[in-house]
Write a structure and sequence with these properties.
This protein has 289 residues and is of the alpha/beta class. Helices cover 46% and strands 15% of the residues. Helix 1 packs across helix 2 and helix 1 runs parallel beside helix 9. The longest helix is centred in the last third of the chain and has 20 residues. The protein starts with a strand and ends with a helix. The protein binds NADP nicotinamide-adenine-dinucleotide phosphate (NAP).
């Protein structure tokens, strides 16, 4: 299996990356990114809303891996949608990361306002023209929202979506559409946030191939052509999640895993709203202390 995929923008994206949502800004994020780079990850996924861009940038700048070999993704948050606000938000992310350019800039969520969404895309197109972003993409976009963007002058290079065996049936059509359109799918929550690692079917396959449940879930993602971005704060698990290139799941294993799908999503609206509320409270308390 190749260790990178060519994007329609021309640059190549590594086939696995480190996710950083919920990694606390400061030593937790710096340690995780350092550990990842040490074992061979070359893709790091962050976002303005994760509040850890500065730490991601610090770990990257401190590492001995050259910038051209690294691939950094960050995202435009919902409240920054619109032309001027998107330009400003991008400048803020670039400054916090303290990098000369970003490899991939994503619209984090489509939102309900089609006008603001298209203004944001125009802003990304203009930023792309400056060379400060190598590829532009979207996240959580449906087929109809992707169809809108595909009518513009620059097609999205990536759609980052929730993807794991438990929601495969509901994402299958989207996955196929992206493949037909040359849009790379980045799989977020590829471990279903570790909620189903004890699933007996996954454990059984893991025993058969001599790997862990997490490795089986990530390998499933890779064999579906997606780029998984598992997150962990533990160096041992970060390494475990990267060791997925020395085995293969058989077509029967893939089918069994596909059939685990019960439509369950770890990121439904209620969860997201709850998390952002808790995060704002946590940051508010931190400022006060
Ligand atoms: N675009 C979007 O809207 C969006 C939404 C969600 C996520 N994302 C991105 O996708 C990344 C990954 O998704 P996620 O963070 O939701 O969940 P995930 O990667 O599916 O799961 C993370 C959880 O799994 C645990 N874990 C990791 N490796 C493990 C292993 N080998 N064995 C056992 N447990 C393990 C982690 O705990 P420990 O830290 O304790 O190891 C953590 O609790 C995010 O970090 C973010 O970068 C994007």
């Amino acid at each position: 299996m190749n260790t990178s995929k060519r994007l329609n923008a021309g640059n190549a994206i590594p086939t696995i990356g480190l996710g950083t949502w919920q990694l606390a800004d400061g030593s937790e994020t710096v340690r995780a990114v350092r550990a990842a780079l040490k074992v061979g990850y070359r893709l790091v996924d962050t976002a303005k809303i994760y509040g850890n861009e500065e730490s991601v940038g610090r770990a990257i700048r401190d590492s001995s891996v050259s910038r051209e070999d690294l691939f950094v993704t960050t995202k435009l948050w919902n409240s920054d949608q619109g032309y001027e606000s998107a330009l400003k938000a991008f400048a803020g992310s670039l400054e916090r990361l303290d990098l000369e350019y970003i490899d991939l800039y994503l619209v984090h969520w489509p939102g309900d306002d089609i006008h603001r969404r298209s203004e944001s895309w125009q802003a990304l197109t203009d930023i792309h023209g400056t060379g400060k972003v190598r590829a532009m993409g979207v996240s959580n976009y449906s087929i109809s929202q992707l169809t809108e963007v595909l009518k513009t002058s620059i097609p999205p290079a990536v759609n980052q979506i929730e993807l794991h065996p438990f929601n495969y049936a509901s994402q299958k059509q989207l996955l196929e559409f992206c493949e037909q359109q040359g849009i790379v799918v980045m799989a977020y929550s590829p471990l279903a946030q570790a909620r189903r690692l004890q699933d007996p079917t996954i454990q059984n396959i893991a025993d058969q191939v001599g790997k862990t449940s997490a490795q089986v879930m990530l390998r499933w993602s890779l064999q579906h052509g997606a780029v998984p971005i598992p997150r962990s704060s533990h160096p041992k698990r970060i390494e475990e999640n990267f060791r997925v290139f020395d085995f293969e799941l058989s077509p029967e294993h893939m089918k069994t895993l596909d059939n685990l799908s019960d439509g369950s999503s770890v990121m439904h609206r209620r969860n997201i709203a709850g998390w952002y509320l808790k995060d704002r409270l946590r940051r508010g308390l931190k400022r006060l202390s």
